[in-house]
Amino acid sequence: MATATSTDASFQIYITAFDEPGDMITAERVQQDIPDIIINDPQEITIGGLAKGISFISESPEGSTSNSEIWFAHTGWLYQITAPLSDDTLLQRVLNMWKFE
């Protein structure tokens, strides 16, 4: 008899209206919103073949937690996606399936 196992994995998607000119989100733009954020390894990315943004590793100011983050803007919306660093593979797999029409 096989035993089922479960894995707790998670990520959070926060979407808000975005009315600034241009859709490119940069590390500098992220720091405008969250001045205390520590951004490591920023990389430009494209989501769904259309939306350009940034992925990075964030650390809390006290250094106790690290997260994988992806920020991008598309058609008037800002997407902020955060996952514990341990769930980065899940986050990447989900985002690789996104398509914008």
What would you note in describing this structure?
The structure is a single chain. By secondary structure, this protein is mainly beta. It has one domain. 15% of the residues lie in helices and 42% in strands. The chain contains 2 helices and 5 strands, in the order βαββββα. It has helices spanning 27-33, 88-95, and strands at 12-17, 38-47, 51-59, 66-74, 77-84. Strand 3 and strand 4 (66-74) form a beta hairpin.
Q: Helix count, per DSSP?
A: 2
The end-to-end span amounts to 46 Å
Low-confidence stretches: 1-5
Q: Tell me the structural class.
A: mainly beta
Write the layout of secondary structure elements.
Blueprint: E1 12-17, H1 27-33, E2 38-47, E3 51-59, E4 66-74, E5 77-84, H2 88-95
Antiparallel strand pairs: 1-5, 2-3, 3-4, 4-5
TL;DR?
With 101 residues, the protein is mainly beta.
Feature tags:
101 residues, disordered N terminus, single chain, 5-stranded antiparallel beta sheet, mainly beta
